[in-house]
Structure to design on (139 residues):
């Protein structure tokens, strides 16, 4: 984390919540290539702490996490705070429509199923940051 400035705009800061390290590394690579700064959490409890302590522009969240707190529960708890406006996007292997709907019902902005298309991953995520205007994103 170097806090570099590009054209007067801060890097988009993304919290990746993913317990499968190869997937987390791929997501980190794709987002870094798009100019984002990333941090990884591997459990629901760790995700809750980092989300509340960090100043993230976006959170990606796996539905299935170890440690007893699912991604759905993390999202629901974060959304209980009316001041927590950070966009949350599920990136999950759960691909049935009921899971996707549940993710949106608990407060996610979007739901991407794994395996995802690498060429559209970062642009799709960053579109949610642009919509909220939480940071300056330049492409």
């Amino acid at each position: 984390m170097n806090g570099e400035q590009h054209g007067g705009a801060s890097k988009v800061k993304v919290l990746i919540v993913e317990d499968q390290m190869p997937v987390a590394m791929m997501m980190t690579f794709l987002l870094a290539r798009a100019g984002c700064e990333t941090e990884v959490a591997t459990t629901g409890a760790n995700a809750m702490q980092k989300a509340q302590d960090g100043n993230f522009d976006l959170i990606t969240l796996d539905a299935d996490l170890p440690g007893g707190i699912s991604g759905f529960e993390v999202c629901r708890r974060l959304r209980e705070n009316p001041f927590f406006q950070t966009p949350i996007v599920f990136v999950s292997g759960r691909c049935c429509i009921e899971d996707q709907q549940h993710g949106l019902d608990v407060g996610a902005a979007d739901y991407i199923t794994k395996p995802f298309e690498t060429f559209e991953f970062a642009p799709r995520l960053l579109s949610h940051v642009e919509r909220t205007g939480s940071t300056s994103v330049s492409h």
Observations:
- The CA atoms of residues 41 and 50 lie 8 Å apart.
